Amino acid sequence: MTSTTIQITTLNQSTPPDRGWRLFLRSIRARAYPRIVGQTREKLWIFFETFLPFMATVGYVFVYRAIQAPEDYVGFVVIGGAMTAFWLNVIWMMASQLYWEKSSGNLPLYIIAPNSLMSILLGMAVGGLLATLLRAGAIIILGTLLFNIQFQVTGFLELSAVFTLTMAALYGLGMMLASIFLLFGREAWQIAEALREPVYFVSGFYFPVRALGFPVALAASVLPMTLGLDAMRQLSFSNGPLLGFLTVNLEIGVLAGLTVLFGIGAKFALEVVERKAIEEGTLTDRNR
Amino acid sequence: MSDNLAIAVEHVGRIYKIRGAKRGEPTERVALRDINLEVPRGEFFGLLGPNGAGKSTLIKILTTLLAPTTGRALVAGYDVIKQANEVRPRINMVSGGESSGYGLLTVRENLWMFAQFYGLDTRTAHARIDEMLGIVGLSDRANTKISDLSTGLRQKMNIVRGFITDPEVVFLDEPTLGLDVGASRDIRTFVRAWMAGRPDRTLLITTHYMAEADELCDRIAIINAGAVMACDTPSALKRGLKAEAVYQLEVTPLKPGSDGALQNLPGVRSLTHTPLDGRAALQVILSGDDALGSLISEVGAHGGSLLNLQKREATLEDVFVSVVGLSMSEAERSEA
To answer: What CATH number should be reported for the domain whose range is B5-238?
Structure first.
């Protein structure tokens, strides 16, 4: 190719590029795309992220059946197993994403683009949520069919609200952690990894959180999965309300509060990251 | 700042804090000191300097990624810190050795994604992707996952990414770093064609390849140790050495410590000594031909015999040596 023979057309200025909210939404969709499409291209991920949480679920089902626990406990475990997929997605993918973006050299390109970094983070969250929804759904369907779980949903609207708020709060937490992990690097990631099993325990992934006692359950309620799981179980099984920690309405209120809190926290943390990146020049340097 | 300027850099300095410095070690590193530059719209401007000279730091400042410690910088008429939101839609950047994008996505998908971040609608984005992939010879790889691309092909994709939004000012940071001759040539051809079709667009390239800077740039700033040492057109920079004589000597190995004595000879402006297998190469800039005799005598006094002597036209490498006092590789070693 020679420069005299090639001509590159200029961008048609009669349709100017989107700015403002349209750019914000366009960026969310674009950044969600790799997450969703990536799932179909890496079959091994589907196996690990569906099969492994399901194996843990099956283990607890056998334990509960062996000790002749009420049958609703089996349903509790299956829902807990499905929600594990979201928690793993938040910790493994969402929280460490900005750190990976730095390593791959994408982060400077995200910062210099005219869209906001918040739209990039939201895109990661939306993509991760949608991709994980399929895996969580697969765990629930498999568990229901294999263990003959009897759901008794008392309020679909409330259940939808609880699930939506739980996801919003959870991915808000993930967005906030993404900035914190970028600031503190591997140390933060290692702490999160070390806390993985304790979080399963205190959030009551495989048993009603009420069993831990009020103070522990209350402290664990700062994690959106704790109250989200508890409310979903109360709304899906006949014995659910008897084993619930707080009333569903109160849990919905707290989840809404956590959504706002983590949303603001994520925005604040991201602003700190961007300011620090520009002041110090280290956060966008992939070699540091 | 004049409306005609695409880039204005006014007394910009940048100091990095060194974390974890032990007692007695420096706690700061000066990356840029009092840089002043003006790049008019439509200019292909080059920053030429060794690794560690401060080129990338300056690009980071101009692309809103880094705040200057002192001074201010304007791009497309806007302050890069106070008006970053005005600067960003108008610029783009491509770096050498860049591994941006997602390996699981195809070339087309990656380019589409980055185009979305600049607000291009999908139809426009795909039309631009098709056109530009065709120009860089990547059309047949549009649906290849980028994890399957070679370094050269991936950098061509990065180049398309940088230009797809038709930015007012493009920053290329060592864009041909580590590429083979063919891929480097294709990238140079592409950027030249882009500039040729857009008299109002501006391109700033950093490189430590002299020939690349000479071939592409309207003007060049030679930067070393964070300071601009010279700034002019390549031909004017070389013309500046016209009164001087540039010689290349090949001699038998010299005794250790001879460099200082040779450099201090009257009429020797600069000298670089490169030991080769069983001989040594001397690149010398003399204030005039009459200094050659004493130089050759001094070579003999230090155990060297003249094997070959060539007078040649000044190159940018000679300009660099004349301005900085070291060759590019020596400057890199001293920086390290």
So the answer is: 3.40.50.300
